[in-house]
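Hey, I'm writing a tutorial for new members on how sequence and structure tokens pair up, and I'd like a real worked example in the thread rather than a made-up one. If someone can provide the structure for the chain below, I'll link this post from the tutorial.
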Amino acid sequence: MLCKLFTKQIRCHVSVTFTTMKIIGITGTLGAGKGTIVDYLTQHHGFAHFSVRGYLSQIIKAKGETVNRDSLVATANDLREKNGPSFIAQELFREALESGQDCIIESIRTVGEVQALREKNGFHLFAIDADQHLRYERIVERASETDKVSFETFAANEAREMNNTDPNKQNLSACMALADYRFNNDGSFTELYARIDEVLEKIK
């Protein structure tokens, strides 16, 4: 009897978790402002942050390799090829679920990831874009370990990740087309934040 009651309580708890958490996935072009949305949601709306880049960086560093865009892409593609197109997003979703908080998963890059997360209650996909030259200026300013590239390399990296027929590889264009909400980040932070607040009000 106690066992049945305990099982019932666990099932009830899981059900509540699935129906009350908001899970936001974010996709978008390089340097468009995914991190800006993440910062706003974590600092002003209490979201927990789960990063594909952070997840991959740990794996790359553990192998003693250099973290750059080539190693990030290669590691992600290898993991998806071995474990399925949605593997990385599923791993981060599992961590997000354990946190029990509203959370944002950054960044979604394959259609398989979108499809897998669509099966979770409370999931919404955001896509963000901006003018390409403006985006390049932004990545030069932030100067992260993957951003120290020429404009030509930046444009080539983006072209490589925008479209792909291999389900295990990046397809940003297709992911953005599947977004529930799209954000243009050509303007000010204030304009972007207002748009985010507007969308959060809709998905409460």
